[in-house]
């Protein structure tokens, strides 16, 4: 099986997860590939999965490493990187609102979400009483028409 084609091979979810984890990407194969290694003992469950990936040509076994207490270090081959790209499921479709909120989270700008989308404090305060009038609620703290006692 050495040298399996990334497009046509069948990978179990466990094997795909090992490849994704080795590269530091999410379950959809997305994210920065900030690493390319997996350290484990070849006798344990993960080691057997890595050995199977070596057999497919998707990983390379660098043998026991003294820095890792004699455990084996595996790296993902270019074919393995392609397999992650081809075999990872597509991410779920996001609504426009969820996309905007995800963009806000990625921006890490120090603003609140309301500030980031450009809503002024007055807009937020006015919106709440208007909603209360629609639902029939009375005496809300921000309602300018609230009955004073």
What does this structure look like?
A hairpin with a 7-residue loop joins strand 2 (59-64) and strand 3. The protein has a three-stranded antiparallel β-sheet with strand order 1-3-2. The protein has helices at 13-23, 45-56, 78-87, 96-107, 113-117, 121-135; strands spanning 38-40, 59-64, 72-76. Helix 1 packs across helix 2 (45-56). By secondary structure, it is mainly alpha-helical. The protein has six helices and three strands; from the N terminus they run αβαββαααα.
Relevant terms:
single chain; 149 residues; mainly alpha; 3-stranded antiparallel sheet; 6 helices
Shape: elongated
Looking at how many chains there are and whether they match, the oligomeric state comes to: single chain
Helix-strand string: HEHEEHHHH
**What count of helical segments does DSSP give?**
6
As a percent range, the share of helical residues equals 40-55%
The computed structural class is: mainly alpha
Strand content: 5-15%
Layout of secondary structure:
Layout: H1 13-23, E1 38-40, H2 45-56, E2 59-64, E3 72-76, H3 78-87, H4 96-107, H5 113-117, H6 121-135
Antiparallel strand pairs: 1-3, 2-3
Helix pairs in contact: 1-2, 1-3
């Amino acid at each position: 099986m050495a040298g399996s084609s990334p497009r046509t091979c069948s990978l179990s979810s466990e094997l795909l997860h090992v490849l994704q984890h080795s590269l530091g990407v999410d379950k959809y194969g997305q994210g920065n590939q900030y690493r390319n290694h997996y350290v484990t003992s070849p006798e344990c469950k993960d080691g057997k999965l890595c050995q199977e990936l070596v057999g497919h040509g998707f990983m390379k076994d660098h043998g026991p490493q003294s820095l890792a207490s004699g455990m084996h270090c595996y790296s993902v081959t270019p074919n393995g990187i392609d397999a992650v790209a081809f075999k990872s499921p597509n991410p779920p479709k996001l609504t426009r609102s969820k996309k905007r909120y995800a963009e806000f989270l990625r921006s890490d700008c120090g603003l609140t979400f309301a500030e980031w989308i450009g809503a002024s404090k007055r807009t937020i305060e006015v919106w709440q009483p208007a909603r209360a009038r629609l639902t029939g609620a009375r005496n809300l703290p921000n309602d300018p028409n609230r009955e004073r006692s």
